[in-house]
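If you are new to this repository, start here. Below is one unmodified record pulled from the training split, so you can see the exact layout before writing a loader.
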Amino acid sequence: MSEPTLRHPRLLPPLLICLSLLLAGCEDSEERAERHLQSAVELLAAGDTERAIVELRNVVKFDVDHKEGRLLLAQTLAKQGDVQDSISQFLRLAEQYPDFLIVRTALTRMMLEINAWEEAEHHGRFARDLASEDPDVIFLNAVLDYRESLLTGDMSGLTKPSAIARQHVAMSPDNLLAWRLLIDHALAKEDTAEALRRANQALTHLPHVYELHLSKLHVLSERRDVGGIRDALMDMMAQFPQDPQARNMLLSWYLEQRDLEGAEAYLRELAAAPGAAADQNLQVVNFLKRTRGNEAARAEVDRLVANDPEAVEYLAMRAVLDFEDGETASAISRMKQLLDGAEPSENTSNLKVNLARMLVSSRQVQEARSWVDGALTDTPGHVEALKMRAAWQIEDDLPEEAILTLRTAQANAPRDPDIMVLMGQAHERAGARELAGERYALAVEASERAPSESLRYATFLLQDGRFDVAETVLADALKVAPAHVDLIATMAEVQLRNQNWNHVSRLIRQLRAQERPSAVAAADQIETAFLLQQRRTQDALAFLGDLAAADENNTAALADLINTLVQSDNAELAQAILTERMQQDPDNATLKFFRAGLHIIEGEEDLAEAGYRGLLSEDPANFRALRQLSRLLVAQEREEDLTKVIDAAVATQPGSLLPRLLKAEQLERLQDFDGAIELYEGLYADDSGNLIFANNLASLITTHRDDTTSLSRAYTIARRLRGSDVPAFQDTYGWIVFRRGNHSEALDHLKNAAIGLPNNPLVHYHLGEVYLALGRTDDAYRVLNKALTLSANQTFPQLERTREILSTLSATE
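And here is the target side for that same chain:
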């Protein structure tokens, strides 16, 4: 065989050169990574952490698989408090080196510290499989075991993890997770003395940990130790003198003790401190307004103006007070005068934003928008103006633009919880619920677990069925605001669902101890649900009877009593109680409303109708009566009478939503779809955040219009419904994406909608069309045939189309 010939010999030298350069480049990258690592180590030793982090980022830039460099970067970021970036680096290491124990333990610890329980469970159990005898692994898994026992109600299962935690704090007094577990275990045993002792011990070693101060406050609140709470708050102020939340908690404590003089003195002390800004004086004004009324606030503003006549902030506050006292036109005029000829500045932009808020309250939204635009022209990064613009963009179904606006705002205020909440709302409007949840979680963190942000996130989680995470969010918030009525009531809802009766009882006692009307009312509602859920109907009746008898104005208790009696087949007693109460107070509209409802239950629909009509004649804005009368007339198929009722309500209350909603629903029933769409467009313009309006409008547009513009508009409105568990919303969104050509995504939503609405023929028709488009003719025939069967009780516009498809499918068999 002859020697093989070398083809194109001239290509060989360049090829060898390229290969050698490539190898040299690899060697250079590795060497450069090592040089950056050495530099980082030296910088860390010298205390120059910021430059060290830059060097470490260069290490993983030149060598993405550099184990030691990425580990050191992750650890350094964690020490600097950059939790999210640190976690990202650790997660990358876990992907590259799954059996790297130090990474798994670090991730477990960090996830536990931020209450990311599912992720902590994953990494902690993985670490246990790697090294079950490692002390850190044993401890971290003890924390996971503790929570598991707590969720299942296995109190005996808390003992061993608690013993392990005691061992760890003895060896490592700075172990925050161990102290957290010990304090929680004491509270779970309802041993508040031990919980307080543990909190004090922890603070001895970790006085700089904000969370431990909150835990101590929570324990003191459980013990109702008023003096101890004040001392603990003063300790917090000493440790965190610039922390606004600590200041607000101390102020709230004064208010809860009804010590208005102490609260005022405290605020004045802050305002008199060296370097205090005008905002501190305005806090005194706002406090006086809230506690003593506008007259006292005005006197304080006058004093401030007398001392500093040129201070625009004080003059603007005077205008705000006038506005709130009803002098809206003159207040707006005065604000405009303050702005007339004012040079562009931060303060000028502040005034424009305040004026915009006044205009919004006066329903002059378009002019308000122009003032916000002006503020942003003068001060492009003005945070409050950007937040107002973003809120309008969300209302206008421009969530992507809102997110860009909010990113600009966040550059100037990275820890502003309102920005994060608005971002969450923007993501929700865009249908990205996972991203929305992340933003709401960040808002909770940035606000230091403030009640409003925590309630919003907990409600969001409950809507998604994530009850365990919602419970954790509420528990953390209650450490900050242990007496917050809405937080306690929401936590009670969670515990009622979990049938954790002991916890519910404790929450009821906590509410009653406050002796405030709102807290007592919440406790009454929770206790009623508590008794009924345990099927203790007689106890519930006795409890509600006592409440109704003790306070004749307690209509909530009376309503619950009547409903409970009716549900227990004791309508006669309900009627007797109501009759007796009406004899004492015959003109009470609420009692009349209850009586009309009992007439319906008793089959006396003519008397019920007369009752509702009487209530509407007395008060055309009694929308409870309007809704019930409308339902009665719809059930009786009296559309002409209903038209008169609704048209009268629309005429007397033209700006109200309910009359127009009832009219839209009627037009849809009468198959005047264009009229219904027009009304829903108006309702949606007034309240684009209303999911019912969004769903109904999008559904009508997609069902009865075919043009591309209409379908795009329907999708814009309805995309927030993506991922919803509500069957009606699943149907709307599924049908819209089907009409837009995404058959696979449509199938996922419409299958769930058909399960949730088994008797709705339109939903089954929609599902049948999807099956047909996917070529699944047997499934299409089955589902469409069900839609046809259901149409005997409820017709739908596509009935003829359904028959045509079934006929075609039958002919092809």
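Two things worth knowing about this chain: The CA atoms of residues 228 and 535 lie 40 Å apart. The longest helix spans residues 12-45.
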